[in-house]
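Hypothesis: this fold can be encoded by more than one sequence.
Test: take the structure tokens below, design a sequence, compare later.
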């Protein structure tokens, strides 16, 4: 066997980066849970000083900080033996309300990997694994992963990109958020559009329990209700807007769900479909974003779809053509890409 040393070193370089990122995930989550990033964002600190700020053990903090600096998540000043965060690092690591929150993605990833043995068996048998069967970090981490993108884009750009929808919401509209999870998108919309009423639906009872609590905490429970039900059975009629955020591709029968959405809309209603950014071919998606989504999809999205009836398993990198086909097969006559971000495609479907 003739080994090309340059190609081997290229592979090993990628491996070292991946291994470092894999084991670093646990420390990112520790930084999130113990408030280490938030405390360091207050100002430069030595390991001892950060330990004092957070009530943690100095030796653990020292090793944590060194790993964070090696990964370029914090800065290190060798002359003073102190650590600090740039404005960009603090934005992405220390503020869950910002437009990006990196630790949430790692909470989701570690929660996902807790089912690795079962998913490996599913690879052999073809069985599915339902969303509700995963560790709770999957549900909480999923919200922490996606919510910053919704905070940054939902009200400011996604809703305005839809034809006539913002005006309806300002005046007072009926809205259903299907596959709402912990209700992040539902609550964001309710806080912005005070004259409208909202229904969030998800088949996972624990997520709905948390959504109801968060709705009450946000002060919008008088205009928001949640129900435990599937995308094909949610209740209500004459909705002005039905939304599905990052969930259509997870469904075992997305066409049945789309047909139900169409039947629940007013004749001039709108279906807002937010899906992970993806091209229509495998080759289009062989990039860092595609890698993230394909790997999450094999552990979460495809197993969930295969656990349901319907025969679909679109996966997180379904792409625009596949989503358009779902909408068309369900009877929608108008479909367009309304806008996009580096992580999401936003579609508008009309009856």
């Amino acid at each position: 066997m003739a080994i090309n040393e340059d190609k081997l070193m290229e592979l090993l370089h990628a491996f070292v980066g991946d291994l470092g990122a894999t084991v670093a995930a646990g420390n990112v989550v520790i930084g999130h849970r113990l408030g280490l990033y938030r405390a360091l964002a207050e100002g430069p600190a030595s390991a001892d000083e950060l330990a004092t700020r957070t009530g943690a053990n100095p030796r653990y903090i020292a090793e944590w900080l060194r790993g964070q600096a090696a990964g370029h998540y914090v800065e290190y000043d060798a002359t003073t033996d102190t650590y600090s965060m740039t404005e960009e690092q603090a934005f992405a690591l220390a503020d869950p309300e910002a437009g990006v929150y990196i630790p949430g993605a790692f909470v989701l990833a570690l929660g996902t990997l807790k089912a690795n043995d079962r998913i490996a068996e599913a690879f052999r048998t073809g069985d599915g694994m339902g969303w509700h069967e995963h560790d709770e970090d999957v549900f909480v981490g999923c919200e922490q992963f996606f919510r910053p993108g919704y905070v940054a884009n939902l009200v400011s750009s996604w809703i305005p990109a839809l034809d006539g929808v913002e005006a309806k919401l300002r005046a007072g509209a009926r809205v259903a958020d299907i596959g709402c999870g912990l209700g992040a998108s539902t609550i964001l919309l309710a806080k912005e559009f005070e004259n409208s009423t909202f229904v969030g639906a998800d088949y996972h009872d624990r997520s709905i329990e948390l959504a109801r609590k968060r709705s009450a905490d946000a002060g919008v429970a008088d205009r928001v209700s949640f129900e435990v039900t599937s995308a094909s059975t949610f209740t209500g009629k004459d909705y002005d807007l039905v939304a599905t955020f990052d969930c259509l591709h997870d469904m075992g029968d997305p066409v049945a769900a789309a047909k139900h959405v169409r039947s629940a809309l007013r004749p001039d209603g709108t279906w807002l479909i937010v899906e992970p950014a993806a091209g229509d071919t495998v080759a289009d998606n062989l990039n860092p974003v595609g890698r993230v989504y394909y790997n999450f999809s094999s552990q979460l999205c495809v197993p969930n779809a295969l656990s349901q009836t319907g025969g679909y398993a679109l996966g997180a990198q379904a792409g625009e053509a596949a989503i358009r086909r779902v909408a068309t097969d369900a009877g929608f006559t108008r479909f367009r890409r309304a806008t996009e971000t580096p992580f999401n495609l936003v579609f508008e479907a009309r009856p």
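Strands lie at 75-77, 82-84, 174-178, 197-202, 224-228, 239-245, 265-276, 334-340, 344-350. The longest helix spans residues 5-33.
Hypothesis status: open.
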